[in-house]
């Protein structure tokens, strides 16, 4: 029970433990129905690096290298990349070996992710996600493999269609999560109509989304609108491609984190490959001040207003032609009734009247 960073508390002094435990337990019970807690060492300014693994029913367990997910808000990832700019070849070998050993020891079968916190040359097990994660396209881009297809083959009892000797990293990939939320209001989720929704396109650009222009974003689901994935031959090229794609990504009607993402990919610590999990929280005022709208926003806004006015005028004209004058229509004017009742009443024979 747990996830999404809900219920986490930092305790720096013994006298603060009781209040922190009570608050964390309340959050956990409310969110997951389970108030069980555990205590672990706090690592200041860690890096969040995870290893993608795949295992089949025939004993094969392989890793598909790493993803770095250090740029987070409220302990939830918003930027992921592969390979990690932090890992040396030696550290990568140690972490991937540990991930494979963990999956094998658990007898795991399927796609999964072993997550670690990294502090210098030391790394610490965080958790295992026993599923395919939101950021799996980053791994697909850098390995050229279809992880969903691999899952289906494993579920069907087939052996993995690749081995560790045939997997190699190809270039650099970055994923940015586009949320319907207002970063300036504490990342408050937003709901409402998508008056304009224009995704970027081009070589090395992939968008996985579940919305379209004209849809209404509901309050009942996670505010994730889309995942923007870019792939290029190097990290600088991937960052440049991400910046260009973000400038071309236009959403109007509700607030999103797109301006924040545009500022993030230009931040010196991100560009230098030195983010930690507390970067966004520390730098939020600076990032919000640097946030800029999309290059397409003014044009998209004009198109949206023109479309809205045109649709409204057309609907009004069509409605005026299609709707009869209610004051000259006598049928159907009964609350909770059906105007066909009038026809049935007229069709019934008149009852016989007996007189004496």
Short description:
With 356 residues, this protein is of the alpha+beta class. 34% of the residues lie in helices and 23% in strands. The longest helix has 26 residues, at 297-322.
H and E order: HEEEHEEHHEEEEEEEEHEHHHHH
User: Beta-strand percentage?
Assistant: 15-25%
Shape label: globular
Number of helices: 10
| Side-by-side strand order of the widest sheet | 5-4-1-2-3-6-13-11
Share of helix, binned: 25-40%
Would you mind describing this structure in some detail?
The chain is globular, with a radius of gyration of 28 Å. It is built from ten helices and 14 strands. With 356 residues, it is an alpha+beta fold. The strands form four sheets. An eight-stranded antiparallel sheet has the order 5-4-1-2-3-6-13-11, with helices on both faces.
Question: What are the main properties of this structure?
Answer:
alpha+beta; two-stranded antiparallel sheet
Which helices and strands appear, and what pairs or packs with what?
Layout: H1 17-32, E1 47-55, E2 61-73, E3 76-82, H2 89-105, E4 110-119, E5 122-129, H3 136-143, H4 147-155, E6 172-179, E7 181-182, E8 188-189, E9 192-193, E10 196-198, E11 205-209, E12 216-217, E13 224-232, H5 235-248, E14 250-252, H6 258-264, H7 268-271, H8 279-290, H9 297-322, H10 340-347
Antiparallel strand pairs: 1-2, 1-4, 2-3, 3-6, 4-5, 6-13, 7-8, 9-12, 10-14, 11-13
Helix pairs in contact: 6-8
């Amino acid at each position: 029970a747990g996830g999404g960073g809900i219920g986490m508390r930092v305790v720096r002094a013994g006298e603060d433990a009781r209040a922190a435990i009570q608050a964390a337990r309340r959050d956990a019970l409310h969110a997951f129905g389970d108030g069980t807690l555990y205590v672990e060492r706090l690592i200041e300014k860690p890096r969040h690096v995870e290893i993608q693994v795949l295992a089949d029913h025939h004993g094969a367990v392989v890793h598909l290298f790493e993803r770095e997910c250090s740029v987070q808000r409220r302990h939830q990832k918003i930027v992921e990349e592969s390979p990690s700019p932090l890992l040396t070849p030696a550290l990568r070998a140690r972490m991937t070996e540990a991930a494979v050993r963990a999956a094998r020891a658990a007898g795991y079968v399927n796609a999964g992710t072993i997550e670690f916190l990294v502090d210098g040359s030391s790394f610490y097990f965080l958790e295992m996600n026993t599923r395919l994660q939101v950021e799996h396209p980053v791994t697909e881009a850098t390995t050229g493999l279809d992880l969903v297809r691999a899952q289906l083959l494993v579920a069907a009892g087939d052996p993995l269609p690749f081995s560790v000797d045939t997997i190699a990293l190809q270039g650099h990939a970055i994923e940015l999560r586009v949320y319907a939320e207002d970063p300036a209001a504490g990342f408050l989720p937003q709901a409402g109509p998508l008056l304009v929704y224009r995704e970027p396109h081009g070589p090395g650009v992939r968008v996985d989304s579940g919305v379209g222009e004209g849809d209404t974003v509901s309050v009942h689901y996670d505010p994730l609108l889309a995942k923007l994935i870019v792939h290029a031959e190097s990290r600088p090229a991937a960052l440049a491609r991400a910046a260009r794609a973000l400038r071309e990504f236009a959403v109007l009607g509700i607030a999103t984190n797109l301006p924040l993402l545009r500022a993030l990919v230009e931040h010196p610590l991100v560009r230098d490959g030195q983010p930690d999990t507390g970067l966004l929280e520390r730098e939020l005022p600076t990032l919000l001040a640097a946030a800029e709208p999309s290059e397409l926003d003014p044009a998209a806004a004009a198109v949206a207003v023109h479309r809205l006015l045109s649709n409204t005028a057309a609907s009004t004209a069509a409605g005026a032609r299609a709707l009869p004058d209610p004051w000259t229509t006598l049928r159907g004017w009964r609350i909770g009734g059906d105007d066909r009742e009038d026809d049935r009443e007229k069709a019934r024979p008149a009852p016989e009247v007996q007189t004496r």
